[in-house]
Amino acid sequence: VHGGTFWIMVQTLPSHCPLATELQIKHLVHFIRHSAGKLLVISGAGLSTESGIPDYRTTRLERRQVNPMTHMQFMTDEFSRRRYWARSFVGFAKMHMTVPNDGHLALATLQKKQFIRRHITQNVDGLMHRAGATDILELHGTLQHVVCMRCNSTEPRIEFQNRLTEYNPTWTPGQPDGLPEGILPDGDHAISLDAIHQIRVPPCLHCGFGIVKPGVVFFGGKVDESVSANAVNFVNDTNAILVVKHFFYYFFKFIFLIHFFFFIWMRTGGINVCDVVRV
Q1: Which residues have a catalytic role annotated?
Q2: Rounded to whole angstroms, how far apart are CA atoms 1 and 52?
Q3: Is the whole model's pTM more than 0.90, yes or no?
Q4: What pLDDT digit, counting tens, does each position of 35-57 carry?
C-alpha cells in the first residue's frame, strides 16, 4: 500500500506450489469488489500462454532456446528482417487462429460489469480484444498491423499476410534448423535456413521503399511517448491495481510508469482470474 493505492499480484507459479486457499480467493474477490470503478489491471505474457502462445521465459525465469528479435537487429540487418518475416509468415496464420482463454474472458467480463476501469497489457496478440474487452492500452503495440518506418503509414497485418502470399506463391517453410517445432513467442514459427533466404518481403504499400515493421516494440525499442503518458495517467487515476500473470522481475522494468515503492504481492498458487468470476 502506498499513497492510498492498493496492489495485488496474481502470478503463475511452478506446479509444486499449492493452489490458492479459499481465504486467499475471498481476499481477491473482496479486493476487486471494493475497488470497482477505479481498478487498473496490468497483464503480462502469462495470460496468453494457456491459449497456446509461448513466452520467452519459463516459470523459473530461465531463458528459452529462442531469443527475441531486437529493434537494432531488425532495423540494421536485412537477414534478420527476412528471418522475422519468414517465421512470421507461418506463425501469424496460427496466431490468427488462437482464441481467448478463461483468463481473457474473465477480465473482459469484469470490465463489462464495470469492476475494471483501465487495463494495461504487455501482450501484443490482441486476445483481450477478441475476448470482448475495450480500451486496452497495449504497452508493446500489437501484431494486428504493420508500419512503414519511412513514411509511417500502417497496413492491417492480415492484408500484409495476403501480400506475403502473393509474393511467395511456391514458398515452403521446410524443416526447422535447431529450433523447437511449432509456434514461437511473438507469433514466430520455426523454419529452415533455406526458407529464410528464399522469402520475398513486400515493400511498403504506400511509399514503396520503407522498411515494413510489425506494430510492436521489439526488445531495445522505445515505447511511444503517448502510450507511456497514458499509462502514467492510468496509474495516477486509480486507487487499486491488479497485476495478472506478469513476471515480477519485468514489472520493475516498467517502474517508470508508477510512483510507488511498496506492493502487496499475493502469491496465489496457480489461480486464474477466471476463478474470481466463478466465486
Answers
A1: 140
A2: 35
A3: no
A4: 888 899 989 888 888 888 876 55
